[in-house]
């Protein structure tokens, strides 16, 4: 029995060349555009959300009470991604904490990292 292929965009039965994926160039273009929109927008948001969520989980596990010093390498081994954070807090001393939601960190000397909890006074910066 011959397998019937359908256009994934409109559902019409495909005829002619068996390597054709879409029934028309219009359907092909529509599917391509929808795909690209999704990839550049929603997919990007979803993947960054996942990184931020994982970063927060790692900080929380490394420092359940907040205020713990660890090593950058330890966080990296756990899968922490230093490129992504939700916001920053700059202290009067000029140190910049990077936050992933309610957990943040400060890079110290010698590849050390201080993990902190977000505090209400950090609202004003
Ligand atoms: Zn079609």
Brief synopsis:
This protein has helices at residues 25-62, 72-77, and strands at 68-71, 87-90, 96-100, 103-107, 112-117. The protein has one domain (25-123). It contains two helices and five strands.
Write up what this structure looks like:
This protein has helices at about 25-60, 70-75, and strands spanning about 70, 85-90, 95-100, 105, 110-115. Strand 3 and strand 4 (about 105) form a beta hairpin. With about 120 residues, the chain is an alpha+beta fold. The protein starts with about 25 loop residues before the first helix and ends in an 8-residue tail after the last strand. The protein has one domain. The model has no long low-confidence stretch (mean pLDDT about 90). Strands 1-5-4-3-2 form a 5-stranded antiparallel β-sheet. The chain has 2 helices and 5 strands; from the N terminus they run αβαββββ. Zinc ion binds near residues 7, 9, 12 and 24.
How do the helices and strands line up, and which of them pair or pack?
Blueprint: H1 25-62, E1 68-71, H2 72-77, E2 87-90, E3 96-100, E4 103-107, E5 112-117
Antiparallel strand pairs: 1-5, 2-3, 3-4, 4-5
Average of the residue pLDDT scores: 90
Domain module tally: 1
Strand content: 15-25%
What is the molecular shape?
elongated
Structural class of the helices, strands and pairings? alpha+beta
Q: Please give the count of helices.
A: 2
Unreliable parts: none
Q: Bound compounds, please?
A: zinc ion
